[in-house]
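Aim 2 progress update. The chain analyzed this quarter is reproduced below.
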Amino acid sequence: MQIEARQPAHPQPAPRADQDGGGCIEVADLARTSRWAAVEAVQRTRRGPIGHARVRIGQRRGTNIGKVAAAHKLLTLVYYGLRDGHIRCLARPA
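Predicted structure tokens:
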């Protein structure tokens, strides 16, 4: 006696990108993680241009807003460093 494989009445949808188990990272997760890492990086910084911006903005607009603004500045400088290979605003005058 031979058993035939039956087709399901309704085909199952293909797995989504976040369900395939391949370890792919969603863009939203990457943005959320990089934002978190930047805020953690500037949280205790008080010296340098990023630390001064955090303290200055924090005094004027609030501590958490100052942290996020400094993290944004840090990510901007990282982008320029990766794009150009150097960061001109951090260079010391000769």
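Residues 63-84 form the longest helix (22 residues). The chain has a mean pLDDT of 80. These observations will guide the mutagenesis experiments scheduled for the next reporting period.
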